[in-house]
Write a structure and sequence with these properties.
It contains 14 helices and 21 strands. It has 506 residues and is an alpha+beta fold. A hairpin with a 3-residue loop joins strand 2 and strand 3. It has 2 domains: 9-274, Transferase(Phosphotransferase), domain 1 (Orthogonal Bundle); 334-501. Helix 4 packs antiparallel against helix 7 (189-203) and helix 7 (189-203) runs antiparallel to helix 9.
Length: 506
């Protein structure tokens, strides 16, 4: 970077270079008058203009100052009242955990135990000050000479007070988000323990919830068991307990330290983890009970508890800064059932995301439009690509007095042996939140002019309709709610707009 756009100073700190940028703002490397390096995070202008953010930011800075310990990057200075609020933390030299893993490969059991114990101590220090990290992941962990340091604790909570969350956002990084966090429920320290479990899976060379779009990863975290196949057997029960779906079933940080670093463990320093030192004969933990995974909830049986609104935004942390992504709902991987390629239907139609739908009544919100996302082939599904876009009512829609203000489209096109099963999975992904209130039970409706049945329901503040045919499966969420018949009629128009024949090749 040439430095042309760099501020000369932030507070009393001379700026040297930019370290990164994201949803909260920009992070700079700077020096104090005495020559000490710091990382200074400066809030974006729109956040600076939000009084709720400033008030929450001030409270979080006050709490974060109390987090000492030798496993965090300590807050050294801040000015919540500056024209652009900023926070300075000690600059910790060293690679991130993600960088170290990319260079050196997975950790063995002894190093996983040391890493887990060090990170648990960091979380304990953070939680003791009344903070929750909310975005623990390999990219937020610096492997310093004296051991791992956790960065960016407390920042997400300040962001949660802003208008960015008015639609029910979940802040953090999909793949490391606890189920309650992914669903927008109230979170506590147990959410950080869940993220720690996912970090240890990554450090062992695995991915707790595989690969995929943010929506797919969030859905798996809520509904599917974590993949622990890469984790050494001796530490696998501990990691499994951290990744329990129910936060009450996860171990406390005190219990985790007992399990990861018993008093009988040979003495070692956290730096052994960063330098990949080997600890011989590390003791194994006792077996922990296994906890049942939460199965997907059926939209017609609704047996879940505490209420929340389905997230309309996801936030993914990158290089220590939050970046906001738009989405229409959770991604899904439906259970398609067995089927060979010969049993798959011919590809005749595909999806497109036009700028306007329903005769121009709704226009897409470019900030909440995800690019098409090709999916791997599986039994019962071939050539599938996910699509997602949010639409808002246009002046044409206002003039026509259409029933809805926003339309969220999420679906896929491909070749499916069980399109109705895929359709119903999409409805679950769009509506199952853990405590949903169903005001109109699902019904199958075929509106005039349609050649396909739509499955529609009203959950909380949205009416959702979906269809499934051999080549396209889509769920659409409408707000505000309306009758199922009105939503089905609008869905028919939208289906005509976004489902198109595949051009035949000569």
């Amino acid at each position: 970077m040439d430095g042309v756009d760099l501020p000369e100073r932030i507070g009393d700190y001379a700026v040297e270079r930019e370290l990164g940028a994201g949803g909260m703002g920009t992070v700079y490397l700077a020096r104090s008058r005495g020559g000490r390096t710091v990382a200074v995070k400066v809030a974006r202008p729109e956040l600076a203009a939000d009084p709720h953010f400033r008030a929450r930011f001030r409270a979080e800075v006050d709490a974060a100052r109390r987090v000492g310990g030798f496993h965090t990057a300590q807050v050294v200075d801040a000015d919540p009242d500056a024209p652009a609020p900023w926070l300075a933390t000690a600059y910790i030299a060293g690679p991130t955990l993600s960088g170290l893993l990319a260079e050196n490969g997975p950790m063995d059991e002894a190093r996983l135990r040391l890493l887990g114990a060090a990170l648990t101590e960091a979380l304990q220090a953070i939680h003791d000050c009344g903070l929750i990290h909310r975005d623990l992941k390999p990219g937020n962990i610096i492997m310093a000479d004296d051991g791992p340091r956790v960065l960016d604790f407390g920042i997400a909570r300040a962001l949660e007070s802003t208008r960015l969350t008015h639609t029910g956002a979940a802040f953090g990084t999909p793949g490391f988000l606890a189920p309650e966090q992914a669903q927008g429920l109230e979170v506590g320290g147990a959410a950080d323990v869940f993220a720690l479990g996912a970090v240890l899976v990554a450090a062992a060379g695995g991915q707790a919830f595989g690969e995929g779009t943010p929506m797919v990863l969030m859905y798996r975290a809520v509904h599917e068991p974590a993949d622990l196949s890469a984790v050494p057997e001796g530490v696998r029960p501990v990691v499994a307990a951290c990744l329990a779906k129910d936060p009450a079933q996860r171990p406390t940080t005190k219990r985790l330290l007992d399990l990861l670093a018993p008093d009988t463990a040979p003495p070692s320093t956290p730096g052994d983890v960063a330098h990949a030192a080997t600890v011989a004969d590390a003791p194994r933990t006792e077996a922990l009970p296994t906890f049942p995974q939460q199965p997907p909830l059926h939209p017609e049986t609704k047996t879940a508890t505490p209420a929340r609104k389905r997230p309309g935004l996801l936030a993914a942390g990158v290089a220590g800064a939050l970046i906001v992504l738009g989405g229409a709902g959770y991604g899904i991987y439906a259970s398609m059932g067995a089927g060979s390629d010969a049993n798959l239907p011919k590809a005749t139609h595909e999806l497109t995301i036009p700028e306007t739908i329903a005769d121009g009544a709704y226009g897409w919100n470019i900030e909440n439009r995800l690019p098409p996302d090709p999916q791997p082939d599986r039994d019962g599904m071939k050539g599938s690509t996910h699509f997602s876009a949010d639409y808002t009512v246009t002046s044409t829609g206002v003039e026509r007095a259409v029933a809805f203000r926003t339309v969220e489209v999420y679906g896929s096109s491909g070749r499916y042996t069980d399109p109705e099963g895929h359709r119903d999975s999409l409805i679950r992904a769009m509506t199952v939140t853990g405590s949903e209130s169903v005001t109109e039970q699902p019904r199958t409706i075929r509106p005039p002019g349609s050649d396909v049945d739509f499955r529609c329901t009203t959950v909380d503040q949205e009416t959702v309709c979906a269809w499934g045919d051999d080549n396209t499966t889509v769920a659409i969420a409408f707000t505000p709610t309306s009758s199922l018949e009105v939503a089905a009629a609008e869905t028919r128009k939208i289906r005509d707009d976004i489902r198109r024949p595949i051009a035949t090749q000569s």
